Amino acid sequence: SMSGYPLDTAKELIRTLVTNLKETDTFNVILFSGASTRLSPSPLPATEENIQAALELVEDQVGAGGTELAPALESAIPRPTHDGKARSIVVITDGYISGETEIFDLIRKNSGTANFFSFGIGGSVNRYLIEGIAKTGGGESFVVTDSEDASAMAKKFCTYIQSPVLTDIQITSNDFDMYDMEPIQISTLFAEKPIIMFCKFKVEPNGNIHISGKNGTQDYKQEIQVSESQISPDHQAIRYLWARTRVEQIMDYGFSQD
């Protein structure tokens, strides 16, 4: 449904993303309107030939139809993952897409398999949807409403998404019971975005919190000692931060009927 500068901005964003892929990356492009068009049935290696095919597919688009996002996401999510690689799904749209609850539930149920990023273009974008995709999918959202800012925002977006620092992240403790964690899972750590997680515990924390993951092809492990930490009344606001995060997931970005 795109036309004018939203379509031009979307094309520039996709061009920047695919031309900066590494040879070890794989990618795919799914165009959605009333129906979906896929570059390939499965992810492709980022060879010059495949990148050129993606660019030609994108350049041929003139914009038409509606904005059926949920079927396109259902098509994109079941792609196979690879150990040690960060998997990202990027949604680019200029439309006022409805059906937010269905989309948020779909992303939430698959949040451990990929990070979801959203890029909204133009004045008719559903900001609630754009921000909700990123919130429930562990990514970031970007909205550009002015053609003069489109190029700079696209470059900022590409710089962020192309900088995964840690993948396959696991946060555990063998020394005390952590439960009701928010967010439930963090699959990938990107540059300029720290790991922030809230949880509850029934007894006084003892021992260490263990963080593990993959840094490229290397295993990453870190232990944070909590047994010597002091529980201070000055930190009571943390419980409210946990509650706000939980309520935000339940109410602000849809409630699953399952």
Approximately how much beta-strand content do the residues carry?
25-35%
Tell me about the biggest sheet?
Answer: 4 strands, antiparallel
Instruction: Identify the overall geometry.
Output: globular
Radius of gyration: 20 Å
Oligomer kind: single chain
State the strand order across the main sheet: 10-8-12-13
Judged by helices, strands and strand pairing, the structural class is alpha+beta
* Unreliable spans: none
Provide the residue-averaged pLDDT: 82
Secondary-structure element order, N to C: HEEEEHHEHEHEHEEEEEEH
Count of helical stretches? 7
How far apart are the first and last residues' alpha carbons, in Å? 32 Å
Secondary structure: number of strands: 13
Q: What do these coordinates show?
A:
By secondary structure, the chain is α+β, with helices and mostly antiparallel strands. It has 7 helices and 13 strands. A hairpin with a 3-residue loop joins strand 2 and strand 3 (36-38). The mean pLDDT is 82.
